[in-house]
């Protein structure tokens, strides 16, 4: 579910079920040609599908960090901490092109990238992502599983 699909009047009712925040990271540098930007956004969409499709009704996708900047990793980490302090149980960073390191993002519960789950974006990668998220939820005893 996208953040923009949630109305203020229904948030309190939905909140117990939507316990996981997805934070997409595009990883643009500004040096890309327009068609390269399109390709990066399409790759990000494909990686997001690994999470959004099987877990529709449990995850909320926030706006993407589009451009790589100095201090971006800290900003992503701060966002993970903030969304959890606002009521989300889990924060998952999702990217096709940004390779954040787990130790640099201690407030992220999981970092989903193609490199982290497969060499390509094939069917196996989606299954491994699904299993990792289910394991995360079970290990932290989040609601719903």
Summarize this, please?
This protein is an alpha/beta fold. It contains five helices and five strands; from the N terminus they run H-E-H-E-E-H-E-E-H-H.
Can you walk me through this structure?
This protein has 145 residues and is an alpha/beta fold. It has five helices and five strands. The chain has helices spanning 8-14, 34-52, 72-85, 114-117, 123-139, and strands spanning 20-28, 59-61, 65-67, 90-95, 110-112. Strands 1, 2, 3, 4 and 5 form a five-stranded parallel beta sheet that branches. Strand 1 (20-28), helix 2 (34-52) and strand 2 (59-61) form a beta-alpha-beta unit. Helix 2 (34-52) crosses helix 5 (123-139). It is globular. The mean pLDDT is 88.
The best one-word shape is: globular
| Topology, number of strands | 5
Hey, roughly how much beta strand do the residues contain? 15-25%
Radius of gyration: 15 Å
| Overall average pLDDT | 88
Terminal CA distance? 18 Å
Q: Spans with pLDDT under 50 lasting ≥5 residues?
A: none
Features:
five-stranded parallel β-sheet, 145 residues, alpha/beta, 42% helix
Give the SSE map.
Elements: H1 8-14, E1 20-28, H2 34-52, E2 59-61, E3 65-67, H3 72-85, E4 90-95, E5 110-112, H4 114-117, H5 123-139
Parallel strand pairs: 1-2, 1-3, 1-4, 4-5
Helix pairs in contact: 2-5
